[in-house]
Design a protein that fits this description.
By secondary structure, the protein is of the alpha/beta class. Helix content is about 50%, strand content about 15%. It is built from 39 helices and 33 strands. The two termini are about 40 Å apart. The structure holds phosphoenolpyruvate and magnesium ion (MG). The site of magnesium ion has 4 residues, from helix 33.
Length: about 900
């Protein structure tokens, strides 16, 4: 262990590559995103202040043993010596002191979630030396007080207020508004106050040994990996807990050394629109955190061209080089120290969904990336946000007319959100989660501690900060509509209200925020979901995604479907849904729940009559009345899906769902009896008795699905006749039909053996009657574990399988979905008993194993077996990837999720290049 390398200087990137066996992914995992970026920039001769990285392996070793691994600290000291040589400065030296920063940096960026300590190395004596050296006592004591504060809060865990309150008081006493009004003596006094805070809170002095400062700061960064903010963020972004963070120790450069110094952050393209134009802010005579926190209003980056033309030109050249090198939009941090430009960080920039699509398309045009890269650059979740709601024009006009316009800020993250105002993250979170309210979280500005409230909220509004402030960056990442810097709004946290020119909005009242325009309204405004047809960039990207999935010849394990990826079908019950599904790019209907059609107003009485019929004749008469309705429904579906397969599921739910509510009816009967009303009483009493006769103690496991079809075959016989009559009529009028009849809830092959031949006979009869023929299929849903286990037998009858993962998950876990989601599931996920809600994302280890077995066994009987999924998981990217891996032919989801599924299917195809579990075996 002694020999293990725990520390890499920024110029040792080659050694790091060798250490991990050559892969850049490996270097990123070892040195973290920030560390590997700094090393990579150093290699490319970009001016980076010298420094070194303590590896994520060291962090993991620390987490395991609670102490630094053997040899790590010695390596840190050696690396520091090299930095001393490079800079000509010395750590702790009075005459020419070296100051360093100590920052976290995990493999994946977790903005602001972990800890940072700046200006390490400042002590009473080195501060004196710095004053002599720089002749700038104001800068030195500003830096020193920052160190004491950061060290106090981050390393020693003293609350922020312990420092912020005395500073606020001091400024008030002096009549200052801004930090810039503080003089050298003021900062010196504040430094002394802060040191006294440390002594009072901790009982010991702020350490005057810089090596102790460094050692404790390194440890604090390691510890912050398991801090609440970081853990919350990892849960929300699916970053694994065992990656660990690296620690970057880097020479401090100062943007607050006077008017020839400054600091800024910038994106190489506009992160909101994707426009190819540098986008960012800088501040003269300031330190980095001032810009990121958005506390001072920063200058636009383009103004630097007149303020410091040479530096600006150098900056533009470096960022262009970086973008070309990474072939990605970069988010950079820089500092200018006395006219010299230093790059402190580069990473792939976070962006809105809109800009992600535009940048991906532009970069293909520019020849930087190919179509596959472009498809991978946009996440399925981003596509989701593109289809997010917006305010309707009429409702906006009305709101304007009613004088409900309230304020305007910076449009930080697009989308419209309507919700009740809450002024802190904890209340926002609890109102959203426990009381199921739509919440808008309103804060002066946000900090990493607020992320849980932001994630729970529908929208975020701040009165301070700009487009690169914390609130803006986090909201964009999570696709939460967000307006920042609405400075007209005065927020009164104590009285829990906000106001603009005296117009007050109290906590709990409704507002509407438009993250696309930056506008804020009081009250609710109606929203609508944008039309995909108008989103030409997205449509182009999705066409590329489809091309990837349709590449022939790779998924050999799914014969008859020799394509690289999944198809995307949709669940649609009505022709208008089918039309929408097609316009969103679906190439089939994977589930039409026919019973929904039974609920329509004019049909329900006939359905009820059919159910209550006392003899076969009456039942058939009612079914004869229903047949034309059903035929017309299917006719519409086939026409909408001309040329594409349409899976129609035969009746599934228990019959009582079509009957009046038992309790209400009972109440009515009792009331009539009490009031002595006799007219109609007898019929009602009879109906009540009939409904009670149908009572089941667990109807979801009772008389439904194929069991009902066998018990009362006339219903499905009517449905099959309607399907085939409609298909025949459509064929005769030139429409290409591909009907697939789906039998739900099969548990044993004998059920299919009993029902299917009767239904096929009807299909043949109709085709003969109409003198027409077309291809069709009969198949079943796999929703019951027993069906999955006996898939080989079931495939003897079923020509296709469709996973009904809603029921399959219920029955595999033995959870009733509605009950589980209402209560214990939340606790299960929070406690880590289940990694995710299994009704949203397929439980690969349990339900998934049944599915993978089903595909394999089913195809052992019927090699060309068509397999799909129509449970709600069909629109979930993680579950789609799983369906790809087990060899599904298609996924079917709600029409609105079709674009998301198309992209997710392409991602799965690219990620697994066609090799699935089924093929591996
Ligand atoms: C399913 O169980 O996954 C399914 C699609 O059927 P339903 O949701 O209609 O029970
Ligand atoms: Mg079901």
């Amino acid at each position: 262990m002694e020999d293990k390398k725990w520390v890499f200087s920024f110029d040792e990137v080659k050694l790091a590559e060798d250490y991990v066996g050559g892969s850049w992914e490996g270097v990123r995992a070892l040195l973290g995103g920030k560390g590997s970026g700094l090393a990579d920039m150093t290699r490319a001769d970009v001016p980076v202040p010298p420094g070194f990285t303590v590896t994520t392996e060291a962090c993991n070793a620390y987490q395991a043993d609670g102490k630094f691994p053997a040899g790590m600290w010695e390596q840190e000291l050696n690396a520091l010596k090299i930095v001393e040589q490079k800079t000509g400065k010395k750590f702790g030296n009075t005459n020419n002191p070296l100051l360093v920063s100590c920052r976290s940096g995990a493999k994946f960026s977790m903005p602001g979630m972990m800890d940072t300590v700046l200006n390490i190395g400042l002590t009473d004596t080195t501060a004196d030396g710095m004053v002599k050296l720089t002749n700038n006592p104001r800068f030195v004591y500003d830096s020193y007080r920052r160190l004491v504060e950061m060290f106090g809060t981050v390393v020693l865990g003293i609350p922020d207020e312990a420092f912020e309150d005395p500073l606020k008081e001091y400024k008030q006493k002096k009549g200052y508004k801004l930090d810039t009004e503080m003089t050298a003596d003021d900062w010196k006094a504040i430094t002394a106050t802060f040191k006294a805070v440390v002594k009072k809170e901790q009982g010991f002095d702020f350490p005057q040994d810089p090596y102790i400062q460094l050692e404790l700061a390194t440890e604090a960064v390691f510890k912050s990996w398991n801090g609440k903010r970081a853990v919350d963020y990892r849960r929300a972004t699916n970053i694994p807990d065992d990656l660990g963070t690296a620690v970057n120790i880097q020479t401090m450069v100062f943007g607050n050394m006077g008017e020839d110094s400054g600091t800024g952050v910038a994106f190489t393209r506009d992160p909101s629109t994707g426009e190819r134009k540098m986008f960012g802010n800088y501040l003269i005579n300031a330190q980095g955190e001032d810009v990121v926190a958005g506390i001072r209003n920063a200058e636009k980056i383009e103004n630097l061209s007149s303020e410091m033309p040479a530096v600006y030109q150098q900056f533009m050249n470096i960022t262009a080089k970086l973008e070309e090198h990474y072939t990605e939009m970069q988010d950079v941090e820089f500092t200018i120290e006395r006219g010299k430009l230093w790059m402190l960080q580069t990473r792939n920039g976070k962006r809105t969904a809109n800009s992600a699509v535009k940048i991906a398309l532009d970069m293909v045009e520019e020849g930087l990336i190919d179509k596959k890269d472009a498809v991978l650059r946009v996440s399925p979740e981003q596509v989701d946000t593109l289809l997010h709601p917006q305010f309707t024009n009429d409702a906006m006009k009305a709101a304007n007319g009613e004088g409900r316009w309230y304020a305007k800020g910076v449009n930080a993250s697009p989308g419209a959100a309507v919700g009740q105002v809450y002024f802190d993250a904890n209340t926002a979170e609890s109102q959203a989660k426990q009381n199921k309210q739509d919440v808008i979280m309103v804060r002066p500005f946000t900090k990493p501690d607020d992320v849980h409230g932001m994630i729970a909220a529908k929208g975020v509004l701040t009165s301070e900060g700009g487009a690169t402030s914390h609130a803006a960056v986090v909201a964009r990442q999570f696709g939460i509509p967000c307006v920042v810097g609405a400075s007209q709004i005065k927020i009164d946290l104590e009285n829990r209200l906000m106001s603009v020119d005296g117009q007050i909005v109290k906590e709990g009242e409704w507002i509407s925020v438009d993250g696309t325009t930056g506008e804020v309204y009081t009250g609710k405004i109606l929203t609508f979901t944008p039309k995909i047809e108008e989103q030409t960039d997205l449509l182009k990207l999705l066409t590329w995604a489809d091309e990837i999935c349709a590449t022939p010849g790779i998924r050999k394990f799914a014969p008859g479907w020799p394509t690289k990826g999944l198809q995307v079908w949709a669940n649609a019950d009505y022709p208008k849904d089918a039309q929408r599904a097609r316009s969103y790019g679906a190439v089939g209907i994977g589930l039409c729940r026919t019973e929904h059609m039974f609920f329509e107003k004019e049909r329900l009485p006939i359905v009820q009559r059919m159910i209550l019929a006392e003899n076969l004749e009456d039942r058939k008469a009612a079914l004869d009345e229903l047949l034309p309705y059903q035929r017309a429904d299917f006719d519409g579906l086939f026409r909408a899906m001309d040329g594409y397969p349409v899976i129609i599921r035969l009746i599934d739910p228990p019959l009582h769902e079509f009957m009046p509510d038992e309790e209400l009816l009972f109440e009515e009967v009792i009331t009539m009896r009490v009031k002595g009303e006799t007219k109609g009483l007898e019929e009602k009493e009879k109906l009540l008795a009939d409904i009670r006769g149908m009572h089941e103690s667990n109807p979801m496991m009772g008389l439904r699905g194929v069991r009902l079809s066998i018990y009362m075959p006339q219903i499905v016989e009517m449905q099959v006749r309607a399907i085939f009559e409609a298909a025949a009529d459509c064929t005769l009028s030139g429409v290409v039909v591909k009907p697939e009849v789906m039998i739900p809830l099969t548990g044993t092959v004998n059920e299919l053996k009993w029902i299917q031949p009767r239904l096929i006979k009807i299909a043949h009869d109709v085709m003969e009657e109409k003198k027409v023929s077309f291809t069709y299929k009969f198949g079943t849903m796999i929703e019951i574990p027993r069906a999955a286990v006996t898939a080989a037998e079931i495939a003897e009858y079923a020509e296709f399988f469709s996973f009904g993962t809603n029921d399959l998950t219920q029955m595999t876990f033995g959870y009733s979905r509605d009950d589980a989601e209402r209560n214990f599931l939340v606790t299960y996920v929070a406690e880590g008993i289940l990694p995710k809600n299994p009704f949203q994302t397929i439980d690969r280890g349990g339900v998934g194993r049944l599915m993978s077995m089903t595909v394999k066994d089913g195809r052992s009987t019927r090699p060309e077996l068509e397999v799909g999924i129509c449970g709600e998981h069909g629109g979930d990217p993680d579950s789609i990837e799983f369906c790809h891996l087990i060899g599904n032919n298609y996924v079917s989801c709600s029409p609105f999720r079709v674009p998301i599924a198309r992209l997710a299917a392409a991602h799965a195809a690219l990620k697994h290049s066609g090799a699935g579990l089924a093929e591996d075996k």
